[in-house]
């Protein structure tokens, strides 16, 4: 089983759009330019942008790119999760457990309660972080690693 990466992709896309590029040749946020940052096909980015548009987080801009519909500080990771989430964080068995078994009989109601608490904690945590927070921390990582200097060489 692999982790669902739709959330990470959507946060990356929104953070890329939130980054201020005014006055550069990369000002217009096209799916091609965003795909370069994500290192994926622009079709993947367009699908993600479609979900984000339906959720009211992005809109196509007059210049042919994409823009946030509100300030990055007003878009939380919970907003993103709600836009791209595939329902429940944790799922139950694909087939019902054996009700004649002591464990099989009680496992789903117990797990349902545990999962409900975990999901509530996740949603509460996501609500405390904005796209602006992610952008700020991403820029700090970039500056700490100083990759521009590393690319220039000796």
What's the number of extended β-strand segments?
2
Radius of gyration: 20 Å
Strand order of the largest sheet: 1-2
Distance separating the two termini: 44 Å
Instruction: Return residue spans where pLDDT drops below 50 for at least 5 consecutive residues.
Output: none
- Basic shape: elongated
> What share of residues are in beta strands?
under 5%
Give the SSE order as H and E letters: HHHEEHHHH
- On the 0 to 100 scale, the average pLDDT is 88
The portion of residues assigned to helices is 55-70%
Structural class: mainly alpha
Q: Sheet with the most strands?
A: 2 strands, antiparallel
Number of helices: 7
Describe this structure in words.
The chain is mainly alpha-helical and 154 residues long. The protein is 57% helix and 4% strand. A hairpin with a 5-residue loop joins β1 (58-60) and β2 (66-68). The radius of gyration is 20 Å and the shape is elongated.
Précis, in short:
By secondary structure, this protein is mainly alpha-helical. It is 57% helix and 4% strand. The N and C termini lie far apart (44 Å).
Topology at a glance:
Blueprint: H1 6-18, H2 31-38, H3 42-54, E1 58-60, E2 66-68, H4 77-84, H5 102-126, H6 131-145, H7 147-152
Antiparallel strand pairs: 1-2
Helix pairs in contact: 1-3, 1-4, 1-6, 2-3, 4-5
What keywords describe this structure?
154 residues; mainly alpha; 7 helices
